[in-house]
Amino acid sequence: MPFRWTETGGFEQLDDVVTDISADGSVIVGNTRHNDLPRGYRWTESGGFDILDPLAGHDVTRVSGISADGSVIVGISGDTQAEPGAGAAPARWTQNGGVEAIGLPPGSSFGWAMGANADGTVIVGHSGSETAGPEIFRWTEPGGIQELGKLPGDLDGFAVDTSADGSVVVGWGDTNLPSPFHARTFIWDASHGMRDLRDVLTEAGLDFSGWSLNFPRGISDDGTKIVGQGYNPAGLRESWLVDLSTNTPGDTNGDGVVDADDLNNVRDFFGTMGASDGTLDGDAYPFDCLVNIDDLNAVRNHFGAMAAPVPEPGAGGLLIFGAMAFLLTRRRADQNRRMMEETPCKGGAKTRRLNVP
After folding, report:
1. Which pTM value belongs to this model?
2. Which mean pLDDT values do the consecutive 10-residue runs of the chain (357 residues) have?
3. Which domains does the chain show, CATH number per domain?
4. 160, 138 contact by CB (below 8 A)
């Protein structure tokens, strides 16, 4: 049963299916049935449930997500009388403007808006036709629909999410290989186009033998962290997190600058395995997960240095991997409670395991 929880109010039951929530938690969206038809809804504490109207000539709405600021809801408007696979129109809803179709790429007869950037000015989704499988699109208010295609060899492509500025898109493609390895995660940006996430990581020197990164579920605001589900080398379904963010040698507290605080950290924690949040190890990639003389030298040699901002993908971001820390986090699937536990570094990469008691 869907619910909303706050520290002051505790658990509050919500109706039907919840699909997304705004960044501050004030707006919740999802899907329900209204007059015996599927409809999306918008919920706020002050206003309760608002049923989202379809486009003219349609009778169904389905919601996929909401912008971080809560201003734009995305999903589809459809017609129950249409043929299966046809008639679904990518749509957005705003509080002032109501429902609006965002259009379809040429040759497409149906589509689905799946995610939006922080202010709803960029929307990602997929579209197709009765004769062609879904491919990825990216919509912007001034530019309209941009076709992103799909990975070479994929039969279908499905968008999942985009970064806060809309410059990085993630999703998955269907390779038609035997299950459970038929899907693979892609990452898209304007400079590099569509890329297999596994290829990006392999090119950076990581060994992913036996792992299948099948289904991404989301991307961080800055476009550097991607989470999803896949299969481990034992063939068990697990969740993963990949971190593409940069590491500044000597920055032991992760504040983006190498200063006296980092020197004090090395002094106070010398000889330890570091902290549970992954800080205190000041080495450049690969990490050794030990606060030692190497970390002292890293602080000394880089004292006063500041972390370069994560490059925008449109301006060459994700291109330099030499100093990147790639984080693979594993989580046992189908569990609803978890506890973070920091583990020693394995294979030169910082790792976390999500344990479920």
Report:
1. 0.69
2. 63 73 94 90 91 93 96 93 71 93 91 96 92 89 91 90 95 77 88 90 77 90 89 88 74 80 87 58 53 85 67 29 30 26 32 29
3. 3-222 (2.120.10.30), 260-355 (no CATH)
4. no
